[in-house]
Amino acid sequence: MPDGGSFPRNLPLGDSIPGMDKDANTDNLVPQPSEKELVDLSALQDFDFGPSWSDATSAKPARKETGPRRSRPARKRGGPTGKRDRRPSKPRISRGADRAYEGKRQSGKRSKPPHRFEPPKKVVEVAFYPEEKGFRALCRAMKATSITYELFDIARILLKKPERHTVVIHPLQVSGEEADSGQGWFYVVKADGMPFLDEPDAIQHALSRCLDHCFTAETVQVDPPRGVFNTVRRCGITGELLGPPNYHRCKEITRDHHANRLPNMPFHKFESRIETVRDEAVIQAWVEKMKTLTRYTLKPEYGGERVFQEAELARAYVRAHLRDKLVSRVKTLRLEGGQTRELADPLIKANVEFSRDREIRFPLHTANRLRGRLRGQNFALFKRGSKGVSYVCAVKRKFRRPGQIFSDRVQQIIEFLEGHPGIPVREFSEQYLGFGIFGKETESAPELTEEQNDRLKALRVDFQWLLKEGYISEYADGKVFAHPIRSTGAKTKEELTLAKHAKNAKKGRKTTTEDSENTEGDKGAEGANEELGIKNEEWGRRE
Q1: Mean pLDDT lowest for which of 93-97, 142-146, 318-322?
Q2: Cα–Cα dist 508/502, whole Å
Q3: What is the predicted pLDDT for the residue at 89?
Q4: Helix or strand or coil: residue 381?
Q5: In Å, what is the CA distance from 475 to each residue of 298, 394, 423?
Q6: Is the pLDDT of residue 164 over 50?
Q7: Nearest residue to 146 via CA among 10, 255, 282, 15
Q8: What is the structure's pLDDT at 196?
Q9: DSSP character for 247?
Q10: Do 335 and 254 contact (CB within 8 A), yes or no?
């Protein structure tokens, strides 16, 4: 298309939304077009995926008998000593199963067991909500165009990256009673906010983080260690110099390094990775490093100014006197999405990751939590189709009334779209105008005459007006539809809502927000979504 503008393009619901991520540039929020290449799978029809040893694919000729076959004496079971053979016998296969297997082997096909993902033991309830900054950026990007998106696609965008959502977790409630693990509480480490189900695990994790939380570290100059040092020990994982084996503080430094830098690794595995270095330059570097010493001063809120010369002594004081100040108990915890990568409790982390993967496949619960937030940003939500798919758009749909008059150019566009429902927006301009606008893959766009440019600009203006007013809709897949004429007896959404209020009042039932939304969609959509929701509620559902 020549310069000067183009038809609205669909916002690519892919890896990034302009301004959503923290390091993204928010200056240009208008999405750029994206082309999806289709993969032709017809070339794979002639491929044989059977095993190389099957009869259908084997090219090895049969073995020829070159002479008489020698017979061997029958071998007694149990060996020459006559002892009973205690080896387990091979399982017998029925003839029917043998024939079925042989048939599959002859056809070159092998049956594979379906993939089954074993969910972890459910110990927490997990809910996902949009992160505030990313959600505002997403709304700005959607309002920059008048494209209509699926609500599930928007939910998947927020779930795809942890930085785009927050996670709310609380212990599992079973029949009104609190779960066995954790007794209905989270034990949260105050130093880094990590939750645990068991208090001893939380205290152990807190002790490995207590130096930065409870003390003020200060580095001072001291005299270097004296003596003859021929070797020095070095951590094979972090590269940190630990000290010579004959240095009196070597074991203490090694334990302190493991507790601070590698607390999740077993000590015996960490010790096996320690290297012994004989290089004189490395030994001298360790001596220079030991000219500085870190002192730990207890913060006033934890009991006053106590100074410890060694990290192990400071940690021992916390273990003895400040255990009750390291961990707090909470019922519900809110975490940023990025914090879930650092969860130290393996069972909580497995539950959060499993819930996120399940929601990405079918984001019913996350989409329902987004409805109110999107309505608060003045987005229109409606359902369309026999399956009741929910859509979101910054422009509210309008249905033409019988006898409504438009200009000749606008009326021609509407009639063309009615005759070509679901036409891609890229093909619409070329078919409507009757001349090519876009070049092929290897060719540039054709040069247009002045008359053709004028007709294209007029079409663009009329198309944008219909789109902004809501008489037509362009969906995220690029297809365009014109909204039908509402019949004379059809009621508006407000009238249907009032009628439903009156009907529910007679039955003594309160009208919900979901009921009001379903008045604009097709009949049966609400029931279809409820059925899908019930199926997705089962925690152990295998897909």
Answers
A1: 93-97
A2: 10
A3: 53
A4: strand
A5: 61, 12, 11
A6: yes
A7: 10
A8: 93
A9: S
A10: no
Q: Establish if 280 belongs to a structural domain.
A: yes
* Residues 231 and 269 grouped into a single domain: yes
Using an 8 Å Cβ cutoff, are 481 and 422 in contact?
Answer: yes
Same domain flag for 218 and 305? yes
Q: Please give the Cα distance from 338 to 163 (Å, whole number).
A: 5
In terms of domains, do 457 and 524 share one? no
Residue 25 covered by a domain: no
Which of 346, 333, 481 has the alpha carbon at shortest distance from 421?
481
What integer is the mean pLDDT of 127-133?
94
> What is the pLDDT at residue 253?
86
Q: What element of type H or E holds 495?
A: helix 493-507
Mean of pLDDT over the chain:
75
- Asked if the structure places residue 56 within a domain, the reply is no
Q: In the predicted model, is pLDDT for residue 47 greater than 80?
A: no
Query: Is the pLDDT assigned to residue 279 strictly greater than 50?
Result: yes
pLDDT digits (tens, 9 = 90+) for 385-432: 777 899 999 999 999 988 888 999 999 999 999 999 999 988 998 899
Question: Taking the mean position of all CA atoms in its chain, how far away is CA 424?
Answer: 30
- Residue 204 belongs to domain spanning: 200-323
- The kind and range of the H/E element at 295 are strand 292-298
Tell me the C-alpha to C-alpha distance, in Å, between residue 282 and each of 233, 241, 250. 10, 8, 16
Is the Cβ–Cβ distance between 480 and 428 less than 8 Å? Answer: yes
Distance separating the N- and C-terminal Cα atoms of the chain: 45
Residue 235: strand pairing partners = 274
| Residue 146 placed within a domain | yes
- Across 360-380, b (16+ Cβ under 10 Å) vs e yields eebbbbbbebbbeebeeeebb
For residue range 175-207, list pLDDT tens digits in order.
444 444 445 789 999 988 999 999 889 988 888
Whether pLDDT at 381 is above 90: yes
Give the per-residue pLDDT at 14. Answer: 53
Residue type, 233: R
Q: Are 413 and 459 in contact (CB under 8 A)?
A: yes
Asked if 301 and 247 sit in the same domain, the reply is yes
Q: Which tokens is 484 given?
A: 């039908």
DSSP state of 340: G
- Closest listed residue to residue 171, CA positions, set 221, 125, 133, 217: 125
| CA dist., res. 238 & res. 294, Å (int) | 19
